[in-house]
Structures are given as structure tokens and as C-alpha cells.
Design a protein that fits this description.
Two copies of one chain form a homodimer. With 220 residues, chain A is an all-alpha fold. Chain A has helices spanning 12-28, 35-41, 46-53, 56-68, 83-101, 104-116, 124-149, 158-170, 173-178, 190-205. The structure holds a DNA duplex (30 and 30 nucleotides).
DNA sequence: CTCGAATAGTACCGTACGGTACGGTTCTGT
DNA sequence: ACAGAACCGTACCGTACGGTACTATTCGAG
């Protein structure tokens, strides 16, 4: 076998097919995502689909993995940040998070995985969380740790803190977008939302200038 | 027609059938929820199903409406509350919210509506939000207004404030439960979560004892 | 008791899907 | 140039679902 055929990667041809399947899923939902339609739209044969991905589940998993390979994350370069820079980073993260969660492909894949979650043997949901969310979470954790190192915020459990930030940013937007409320998907308001959420986050975890007489929050 | 046959209500027989359909949905997900299986499990005929509910969509909508009719809400009796009582009410609300969202029937119905949300003509998602969430939201709004009247918290926009409370309580739990993460559905931790969320909520919106020097949060 | 409406149970129909098989074509390594 | 693999397009199969039609049975009103 040739050297560029690694087991976990996809050939350019398969890459195109997966991209086409994603477009199909976004356009019409799971009902439209049949093996025959994917094959016809992508100008490939069903036999190739089954040889490449095993079965329909494998195709869906490959679509998730393929999409997850696109998102990139924040990396801590170790450089010090002043408070304005750190706040801007947080706002940027919040804005990106809202934009990613509200994206067409993300919503379609989440709907797909949630629809399959009732069957016990389906691991699509777990796959989506691990491959998609994990990267975002790690980037956010690195950002929070950097903020703590520069003494802009203080916390003990980075995971707890990140989850609070996530809740302040996303609230119930994700579920409502998943349910089909298109009115709230306008990214016009994402800016204000991100600003407000970061304000609230600093109110909870920000270090005061003189002493930390701010509200301390603890897990009971 | 007799007096107890109102147009929007269901007969006891239909009530039982809907209950049976809900059990079926919870047990096996949408794949199992076929008209034939519902009819067989409920000991009724498919013809009756179609006469009562029109088509499959109507049956699903009736299931949502039937389930929504069960949830009851907080009602403001106008009596004054001290701070401890108000905090207990908030914690109770948060705990109930987590328990409702994590319930089997709620998760199954949300998965169902989200799965159908890709089709444009399906209004199940909107129906679920209006009939299910609306009641909870109104109860929470009444509770928050009561807390403001008793000067335990302060805010300007009750909807904004409620959404923040929701985000602090739920975070990403709902979506992850929808995706099938059963580990986080243990209500054992719901108590701690509710306490922590209410602590954070008071840190953001609580009125200080002497003067309100607490963090003011506003929409930019 | 009789009649008619409502219902249970079943059979049926058209359609669509997942998965497999096969002939014809293109690509690739030697 | 040639052989073999990969691949496209299509046909095919078994199954299952949504919805309808029909018969037998139940049940309530007069």
C-alpha cells in the first residue's frame, strides 16, 4: 500500500464525498441523507460508500470526524496579557462559540446525533462531544488558565469555571436553535451577548484591583 | 355531542393511548414509535389513531400537548418572603428545572422535536417551546418579580435576568443529556448544582445589605 | 330488542430505505 | 501494453413504514 494511505485519514476523494454529504445534511436534514442520495449527489456508487465507511453509521461518524477536524482552538503562547487583552480574548471566544454552535453544519450534526441518541448502541453523540466540543473546551481552559496566571481572574476548578462561562454565554440558545428557532440565529446580536456574558463572568471570577472583596463563589 | 367532549381536550381513552405512546417513545426512541406499534401496544386500531389525531405529526403534537399539560408552575401569592425563603424558592426552582429537563419523557420529546426540526414545515419544535418551556418561564418570571418586590434582587429586564439564571443552572447539561450522556443524569448532583447556581445568581443580581455596591451587570 | 355509530383487528398498497450484486469503465503499477 | 484493482451506475432484494379499506364486534340510545 502506498505511503499516503493512512488508516485514520481520508483520501481527497472521500473528503469530497463527506463534504457533499454534509451539504446534503444541512440542506435537507436526516430524512434526505440516504445512502442512495449521497452516492448520486457525490457522483459515486453506493458500493464505494460501503467499502469506505462500512455502513451508514460509519458514514455519519466519518462526517462528524471530518467536520471536527476543521475547528481550530486557542493556544496559549505564554505571553503576558493585560486586562483589556484578556477581556478581548474572552469576548472573542464567546463570540466564536455562539457562531460555531449556531452554524448550519454544527446544528445539522447535533440534530443528527441527538436523533440517534435514543438507540443505546449508537455512539454518535459521544463521538460528537469528544471530537467537537473537546477541542473548544481545551482551548477555553487554556485561556482561563492564562487569565489566572496573569491575575485577572481567580478560580480553583478550571472545569467548573469554564462551565459557568459556557452557561453565561450560551444559556438556552443552543437548544432553542436546535429546536428550529431561526429568529435567534441572527449573529447580529452575538456581539452584545458575548460582551454581556463576559461582564457577568468578570463579576463572578474577576480579581478586584485592590483586594478581592468581590463575590466568592463556591461549590457547596 | 355531549358536554365533556371539548374540542381541544382528549377523551380518557385518547389520554391512555397518548400515555402509552409516550412510554413507547421513552423506551425505544423515535424508531420504535410507529403508528402500527402504538396501535398494537395501546390495543387500538390504526384507523382510530388517524381519526383522532389526523396523521403521525398530529399524534406527535398531541403527545407534546398532553405531556405539557402535566407540568405545573410557581404562582405568586403576593405574600412577603424573607431572604432565606426566597433563596430556598430559587434553589427549588433550579432543582426542579434540572429534574424536568433530565426526565425521561422530556428528553425523549425534545429529541423527537429536534430530529424533526430540520424539516421546515414541522412545527413540533415551536410547539414544544411554547407549550412546555413557556409555563416554566412564566413561573420563574413571577418568582423573580416577587424577589425584586421584596428587594432581595434587583434587575431591569426580567427576561434577561431569567435567561441568566437558566444559563447558570443548566449550562451545557441539557444538550449533553440530549446527546446521550447518561452519567450526568444522576440527580444526585442536582442539589449541589442548584445551590451553586443560585449562589452565583445572587452574586450577580443580589441586593447587598447596606448599599448596592455589588457588581452591576448591564447589556452593552 | 334493534339500529347505528364507534372501535379493534387485520389485511393491503405504494413507497422508500439499507445493503448487495453485477456489468462496464477508468485508473495505476509494472 | 497489459493485468488487476478501484470505481461508477444501475438493478435488485428484503424489510418496514405511513396510510387506507374492510369486517367483526361492542356499546349506547330510543
Amino acid at each position: 500500500m502506498s505511503d499516503d494511505q493512512r488508516a485514520k485519514e481520508f483520501t481527497p476523494r472521500q473528503h469530497d464525498v463527506l463534504e457533499c454529504a454534509l451539504s446534503l445534511l444541512v440542506a435537507g436534514g436526516e430524512r434526505v441523507l440516504t445512502t442512495a442520495r449521497v452516492a448520486r449527489t457525490a457522483n459515486c456508487s453506493k458500493e464505494s460508500l460501503y467499502r469506505w465507511f462500512g455502513d451508514r453509521e460509519g458514514l455519519l461518524a466519518a462526517m462528524i470526524a471530518h467536520q471536527a477536524s476543521k475547528v481550530r482552538t486557542f493556544s496559549d503562547n505564554g505571553a503576558p496579557m493585560d486586562r483589556v487583552q484578556f477581556r478581548a480574548q474572552l469576548v472573542g471566544f464567546a463570540h466564536d462559540l455562539l457562531q460555531v454552535l449556531g452554524g448550519d453544519v454544527s446544528l445539522a450534526l447535533n440534530r443528527l446525533a441527538i436523533g440517534q441518541a435514543s438507540r443505546e448502541e449508537s455512539r454518535l453523540g459521544q463521538l460528537l462531544v469528544e471530537q467537537g466540543r473537546r477541542r473548544i473546551d481545551e482551548g477555553a481552559a487554556a485561556l482561563l488558565e492564562a487569565g489566572r496566571r496573569c491575575q485577572h481572574i481567580e478560580f480553583t476548578d478550571v472545569d467548573e469555571t469554564y462551565r459557568t462561562l459556557y452557561g453565561l454565554v450560551v444559556r438556552d440558545l443552543h437548544v432553542r436553535m436546535l429546536l428550529g428557532e431561526d429568529e435567534i440565529r441572527k449573529p447580529k446580536n452575538f456581539g452584545e451577548m458575548a460582551e454581556r456574558a463576559v461582564d457577568q463572568f468578570f463579576a463572578l471570577y474577576g480579581v478586584q484591583e485592590k483586594k478581592r472583596m468581590g463575590p466568592r463563589v463556591r461549590a457547596v
